[in-house]
Every structure is written in C-alpha cells, then in structure tokens.
C-alpha cells in the first residue's frame, strides 16, 4: 500500500507541475530534429512497413487479420509504454529492472532529459524507444500467422512487454547487468531481434503447424505488398540504426552506411544461393535477404566500418537462408513468416559478429570514451556478446512460455479449425478481400 500511495503522489505531482517553456541549455536543436525524424521512421517500419511486409506473404483470407496485428500492437504497446514499461526499462539503477518514478510519465517536463540521451527532450527519447517496443511485439505475430486469435495476440503483447521486453531493454540499454557485464548492442540485436525471433519460435512450437502445412499450397497472396513493405522497412531502418546514436553526428552516419551495405549484401547472397540451388532467383528471396542483412547488422551498426557492414550482410544472407530452409525443415516447425530464421538467427549472429568486427575507431566518433575503449574486437568482447545472447535466449524462452500458457488459459491461443479454413479476416474481423 505504501508503494501505491507513493506512486499516486508522484503522478499527482507530475500532473500539477507546469514546466517552463524556455529551452534547456542541454537540449540540442539539431539532435532533437534528427531524433524526431528517426522516431517517425521507426514507427513507419511497423505501420505500414511491417503490416504490408507480413500481409503480402500470407494467403488472401488472412491479409487483413495480419495487418490488424501490426496496428493493434502499435496502439496497445504505445499506451502500455506510456503507462509503465518505459519507466521499468530506462529509469532507476537496478541491475534487473528499472523503477516506477516515470509511470504515466510522472514528473517529465518540457526540459526533462534522460541520462541516456542528454541532448534531446526525455519525451522524445521515450517516444523513440517506444517504437522499438512496438515493432518487437509486432514481429512475433508473423511466426504464428494464419492461426493465432487476435484476442490472444493482444493479451500476449500486453504481458510479454513486461515479462520479456522491458527487463531485457533495461539489462542491455538501461544500465542493467548485461551492460555492466560488457555487452554492447547498438540498436537491438538482443532486445529486438533475438527476443522477437525466439518468442516466435516458442509460439510456433506451442501452437503447432497450420492446417494443411506441407500439403496445401500456402504461397503468398501478393508479393507486391511485401516488396513495398520491405522498402519501407529498409528506409525506416536508417532511423532504427542511425537514430540509435541519439545524436546527429558521424556515428549515426556510419551506422546508416553500414546498414545499407549490409542489406544490399544480404539480398544478393540470399538470392544468389537460391538461384544456384533452385535455378531461379525469387522476389521473396531478394526481400528476405535484405531483411536478414538489416536485422543482422543492427547490433553492430554503430561500431563497424562500411566494408565490415558488407561482410556482415553477406554472412547474414547465407546463414539466415540456411536457417529458414534447411534448419526449418530438419526441426519441422511451422514459423509462418520465418521470424526465427531471419530475426532470431540474424540477431544472435549480429550480436556475436559485433564482438568480432567492432572497431574502436568508429565508436570513438561518439562522445563516449568508455565505449570506444571497450570495443577492440577481441575475445573478451566476444565472450561478453556470447553471454548476452545466451541470457537473452534463456529468458525469452522461459518468459514467452509462461506468457503463452497464461494467454492460452485465459482466452485460448488458436482459432477453431473451421475458422482457420474460412480465414481469419472473416472469422475474427468480419471483413474480407474476396469479391
């Protein structure tokens, strides 16, 4: 009760404070403008980028239901981030979880800044990090597309945000124990991609395959939607990785350049392997390789040189192609849109490669001598990266399993067999693309 009363008092205090409108000397207009653009770009990655990318790869009867997941996640996760998740992720100095002093943004004034981004308003830092939480939750839905209830997806997002995402974000970016251990993750190899990919794999295994998987034609309905979505994701990733510098400087530029080159290399390698193996390069292969390159470069993007971005993208194209074809068939799981093969494997690979390729000369472009002194691309750094990958995977497996069991007990995870055959658009939303 005492903690509840303290929270109410903090909220009331925040509500009655009228902050001065004069700009704080620490807030830099150039950094602020850059981060406003980056925030918009990352939000665009989910709506409409991911919504189009995912919906173009499912069957016609599930297009709208797949889009609904991206929009639903955006609305729900944003409000939960505002309510408590931001505070748990980026406030306080606990090793395991943050504090509650910024619940409902209590005490956040016009001139407030975060210690993690001291040259931009804290409200902007909060909003930028919110877009990461949104797309991570939305990514998970792709692994169980065509069979997951919308109610189950929304409840999953609400619980998983607090059980898995917020703790991991605090451990890696909020000053928690993985950051203290020495793990570096520039833009989300662990927090975003490993979490989304592993959660997707756990969900796919728990729910089982789609009806007719391996027997019926489950070809994408409209790859033009997926191509447009990939383009939006690619451009949005400049805000995702470049914006993670949190300042408008050369480090952001290096991150953007490495990101672009990695996407290019990933697309060509994946497509080339497919061409060599199957005789034709598919459009789906091109866009899948690009996304693999984008996801894999994410944790390393602010710490590597442009040529290293090319190498990481090329490795990503080959490894993620193998994971999404050979490994998937061997393990016999139905990850509808290859969330694990692209994001889970790519995130782990990129986090490890950060320890291999991290260049102190690049990180020194930021005003962070502690980081630049840390990164030398040596075995000690690789060990810290491997530990971060292992901890993230284990926590995500346990947390996701618990959340899915709770969701299943409360609302059920899977639609009825007849609804799955009819299509989720009609069964869940009462709408259809059919004429």
Describe this structure in words.
With 435 residues, this protein is mostly helical. It has a single domain, classed as Ammonium transporter AmtB like domains (Ammonium transporter fold). It contains 17 helices and no strands. The chain is globular, with a radius of gyration of 21 Å.
Helix content: 55-70%
Give the structural class: mainly alpha
Task: Please give the CATH architecture.
Answer: Orthogonal Bundle
Oligomeric state as shown: single chain
**What separation lies between the terminal Cα atoms?**
57 Å
CATH topology: Ammonium transporter fold
Give the uncertain stretches in residue-range form: 1-25, 365-374
**Which outline best applies?**
globular
Q: State the CATH superfamily name.
A: Ammonium transporter AmtB like domains
Largest sheet: none
Average predicted local confidence, pLDDT: 91
Count up the domains: 1
Helix count, per DSSP?
A: 17
Count of distinct strands: 0
Elements, N to C (H/E): HHHHHHHHHHHHHHHHH
In angstroms, what is the radius of gyration?
21 Å
Strand % is under 5%
CATH class: Mainly Alpha
Q: Could you give a quick summary of the protein structure above?
A:
By secondary structure, the chain is mainly alpha-helical.
SSE layout and pairing:
Layout: H1 2-16, H2 29-55, H3 63-90, H4 122-140, H5 150-173, H6 177-181, H7 189-207, H8 223-242, H9 250-278, H10 283-297, H11 306-331, H12 339-357, H13 360-363, H14 369-374, H15 379-410, H16 417-422, H17 424-429
Helix pairs in contact: 2-3, 2-4, 2-8, 3-4, 3-5, 4-5, 4-7, 5-7, 5-15, 7-12, 7-15, 8-9, 8-10, 9-10, 9-11, 10-11, 10-12, 11-12, 12-15
């Amino acid at each position: 009760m005492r903690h509840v009363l303290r929270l109410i008092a903090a909220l009331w205090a925040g509500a009655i404070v009228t902050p001065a409108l004069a700009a704080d000397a620490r807030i830099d207009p150039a950094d602020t403008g850059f981060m406003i653009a980056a925030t918009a770009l990352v939000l665009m990655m989910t709506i409409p980028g991911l919504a189009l990318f995912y919906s173009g790869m499912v069957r016609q009867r599930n297009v709208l239901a797949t889009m609904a997941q991206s929009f639903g996640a955006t609305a729900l996760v944003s409000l939960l981030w505002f309510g408590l998740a931001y505070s748990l992720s980026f406030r306080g100095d606990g090793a395991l979880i943050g504090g509650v002093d910024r619940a409902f943004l209590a005490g956040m004034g016009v001139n407030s800044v975060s210690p993690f981004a001291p040259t931009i308003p804290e409200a902007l830092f909060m909003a930028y990090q919110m877009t990461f939480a949104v797309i991570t939750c939305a990514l998970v839905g792709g692994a169980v597309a065509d069979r997951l209830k919308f109610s189950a997806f929304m409840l999953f997002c609400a619980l998983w945000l607090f059980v898995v995402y917020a703790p991991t974000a605090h451990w890696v970016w909020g000053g928690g124990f993985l950051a203290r251990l020495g793990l570096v993750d520039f833009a989300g190899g662990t927090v975003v991609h490993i979490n989304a990919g592993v959660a997707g794999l756990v969900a796919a295994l728990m729910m089982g395959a789609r009806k007719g998987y391996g027997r019926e034609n489950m070809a994408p309905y409209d790859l033009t939607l997926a191509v447009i979505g990939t383009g939006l994701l690619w451009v949005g990733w400049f805000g995702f990785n470049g914006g993670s510098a949190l300042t408008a400087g050369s480090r952001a530029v290096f991150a953007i350049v490495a990101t672009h080159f990695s996407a290019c290399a990933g697309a060509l390698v994946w497509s080339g392997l497919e061409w060599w193996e199957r005789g034709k390069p598919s459009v789906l292969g091109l866009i899948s390789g690009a996304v693999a390159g984008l996801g894999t470069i994410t944790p390393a993007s602010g710490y590597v040189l442009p040529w290293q971005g090319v190498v990481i993208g090329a490795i990503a194209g080959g490894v993620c192609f193998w994971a999404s074809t050979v490994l998937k068939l061997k393990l016999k799981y139905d990850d509808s849109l290859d969330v694990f093969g692209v994001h889970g494997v790519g995130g782990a690979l990129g986090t490890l490669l950060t320890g291999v390729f991290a260049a102190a000369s690049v990180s020194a472009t930021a005003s962070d001598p502690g980081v630049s002194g840390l990164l030398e691309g040596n075995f000690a750094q690789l060990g810290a990266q491997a530990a971060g990958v292992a901890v993230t995977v284990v926590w995500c497996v346990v947390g996701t399993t618990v959340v899915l069991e709770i969701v299943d007990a409360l609302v059920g995870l899977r639609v009825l067999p007849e609804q799955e055959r009819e299509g989720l658009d009609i069964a869940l939303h009462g709408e259809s693309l059919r004429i």
